[in-house]
Design a protein that fits this description.
Order of helices and strands: HHHHHHH
Largest sheet: none
Shape: globular
Length: about 140
């Protein structure tokens, strides 16, 4: 299981992802706050992370990295973005996935599959199947 420092790192990474277009929008903030609650991080600690990011910690568990990648996919697709912001978000998401040590083939497959789902949100079971196929 993920410890507190890793949880703070996960949230910090998600906040950085949300800030790529300079500001965290209300829907993004609420989504991130929900993730913080899921991770048992207080609102005060979460709000502190917005202005004070913590260092990235590489998750040892492959399954935890997949879950984090899925969170980032959800975060990217929370709002309707301009086509340019969407393209930049895909590039950023791809790079985050690589930094987490995920297979570039699986990341590419997930990003391609996004287009075929409503609101570009890949269901968790589909995402897991993509990574299982690439992992084996």
């Amino acid at each position: 299981m993920v410890n507190r420092v890793e949880k703070l790192s996960l949230l910090s990474e998600m906040i950085a992802f949300a800030k790529f277009d300079k500001e965290i929008k209300r829907l993004e903030y609420n989504f991130l706050l929900g993730v913080a609650k899921q991770l048992e991080i207080t609102r005060e600690d979460f709000d502190y992370l917005i202005d004070n990011p913590v260092s990235y910690i590489h998750l040892k568990s492959h399954s935890e990295r997949i879950v984090q990648f899925h969170r980032l996919v959800l975060l990217m697709n929370i709002e309707n973005q301009s086509e340019e912001n969407q393209r930049q978000g895909v590039v950023k998401l791809y790079n985050f996935g690589l930094r987490m040590g995920l297979s570039h083939e699986a990341i590419t497959k997930v990003l391609d599959l996004m287009e075929s789902f409503p609101n570009k949100i890949v269901p968790p079971d589909v995402l897991i199947d993509v990574f299982k196929t690439q992992y084996n």
